[in-house]
Amino acid sequence: MEVKEFTWAWKDLQVSWNIAVPRKTLAPTATVLIHGFGASKEHWRHNQLVLAENSPCYAIDLIGFGESSQPKANLIDEEISNGEFTYCFENWASQVNDFCQEVIDGPVILVGNSIGGVISLRAAQLLKDACKGVVLIDCAQRRMDDKRLSIQPKWMQLSRPWLKNLVRQRWLSQSLFRNAAAPSVIKKVLKQAYPSGANIDDHLINLLHKPSQRPGAAEAFRGFINLFDDYLAPDLMKDLKIPVDLIWGEKDPWESVEEANNWFSSISCIRSIQIIPGAGHCPHDESPNEVNAALKQMLQQAL
User: Is the domain defined by 3-300 classed in CATH 3.40.50.1820?
Assistant: First the structure.
């Protein structure tokens, strides 16, 4: 079995994607893997071939990341010009929806890590009956969203207008991005995200660093850090009729496992939660054996 690479034209942009196909008879439902912020389809390096043992498994680079187009960022309240892109959950979800409709053209299960989880939920709404289920891996909880401002410290509430104005400035976002994209900084962040230290290797650092060196890489960063009022996962799940399964790293430093457990106990569409001991924000890459076993069990119910 091998992973085959392709490019798909979408709204005057280029989307990079790949597929691993099982050797045996294909199951009718495909799996689509959606990466988190700053990552790419390659972040599923330890999962895709395993998941493809039972059904076709696709991975896609969101616009702004990996090998997909990196157009200039247009903020939601800015006048848009030709060739610009508004980096937001609605547009990324539209990309996933159109990909599933035009390229796959069949039933799918969406698997998303971090912001890929929020994107998966919104894409599931757009896909309607074509989406048979969603698996969220350490889904972004988006505590900095305006709709959650009341839970933030008072100083953060008061400084929000100043912060919003500051991060709009392209000179600042580009400076912040250049610093964040340095290999030494990437490695430091990975040590936070992967508390066990497992699988932090040169390949991982390179797959995160390489796309950041492309000319338009800073634009997705500018768009993302200006998303102060966008979708929240619990709101997207309120009326969702398809099953949602959760996989969560026990020691995720950014997305609280306690809140994930609250989602499980209070949101009716969530069918199960699997906590991965010792893992952090990206358990699919840090603890792939445990996550692959959980994923295969979850996916099998919808294939």
Answer: yes
